[in-house]
Amino acid sequence: MHEMGIANSILDGVAAELRRRPGARAIKVGVRIGQFAGVDPDALRFAFEALTIDTDFAGLQLDVEYTAGRSRCHDCGQQFEISNYELLCPACGSMVIERISGDELEFKYLEVEELGDAEQASASGDCGSEREVN
Ligand SMILES: [Zn+2]
């Protein structure tokens, strides 16, 4: 089950980000997975929970966005979502299409809670609580 390795990589990324932000605790990590990335979201959630339980990351939530693949037609330029592994352009029927997305496996965001400066954190609202990590 290679989802275990992917969950490990996600946690490595979270740990690396936290090293740059002393005093912060990770709350939630968001990842984007394309339908052709070969990752089972349920298996990934299961692996993630198994790896974080009884660790410093216990309670860290994993938010998986599962995205459909998109293709572009070389003949008419139409872009469309791939459903049922269609091999023809829905606009002109061309067979010459190219996949342009669907195999993503990337970080979307990391939500952290700032520890320490509690007064400032509550006064400034949610400013900076989310940021891109890729
Ligand atoms: Zn076309």
Can you describe this structure?
There is one protein chain. 26% of the residues lie in helices and 31% in strands. The chain has a four-stranded mixed beta sheet. Strands 4-3-5 form a three-stranded antiparallel beta sheet, with no helix packed on it. The longest helix is centred in the first third of the chain and has 17 residues, at 3-19. The chain starts with a helix and ends with a strand. It has helices at 3-19, 41-52, 118-123; strands at 24-34, 61-67, 70-73, 79-81, 97-101, 105-114, 130-131. It has one domain: hypothetical protein PF0899 fold. It is of the alpha+beta class and 134 residues long. The protein binds zinc ion. Zinc ion binds at residues 73, 75-76, 78, 89, 91-92, 94.
CATH architecture: 2-Layer Sandwich
Helix coverage percent: 25-40%
Q: Give the low-pLDDT segments.
A: 119-129
Radius of gyration: 19 Å
The side-by-side strand order for the widest beta sheet comes to 2-1-6-7
Q: Percent of residues in beta strands?
A: 25-35%
End-to-end span in angstroms?
25 Å
Bound molecules: zinc ion
Overall 3D form:
elongated
Helix-strand makeup class: alpha+beta
Main sheet characteristics: 4 strands, mixed
Domain tally: 1
**What is the highest CATH level, the class?**
Alpha Beta
Q: Average pLDDT, to the nearest integer?
A: 87
